[in-house]
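User: Okay, second chain of the day. Same drill as before: sequence in, structure tokens out.
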Amino acid sequence: MDLENMTPEVLGDVEAKGIETTIYYALRSDIETMPTYPVVTNPEDIVTVTGDIIFKTGKCFKEMKLRVDKNGVKSSLVGEIQSKSWNNMLDVSIPTNHPKLLGTIDYLKNREVVYVFKERCTNSNRMMGSDCNPATFDTAEIDSGTDQESFKGFNGGIKSSGKLPAFYSGVITTTPAA
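Assistant: Same drill. Structure tokens below.
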């Protein structure tokens, strides 16, 4: 692979920050086929998967609605010299303590999940969670709030390790597969 220029003319707008307020999630065990990484011919291939996420019969992505301006993904390089990989953390905040949300969080806390989220103000979907690098809850805090001005709801961190969250251009299926 040849290296390329990394200038604003090549990379585009970098002002938009965060992720959109809707993320999609599904248990890894509900997915029949995962997208794959292509043969690397350019830098984008290293962080892009191809193909669709194909669900088992009756399964699909579910939506999770997040708070505005309180969500994002951070990736940190970790490991010994010449043995580096990535720790990725998807921070989510949901302004409610509804029993359905809390029960779902409790159910997902130790399960492998695939998440798809859109970077704000772009058409770039990113995916966390794969066969080799599962995404699971790493942190969770449920807050009742202390007064009318304080936050009441859920804040959590979803972690995956290994590769960066992949760019995913496949279908986001929200109706159960036939």
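Helices lie at 8-11, 43-46, 99-108.

User: Thanks, on to the next one.
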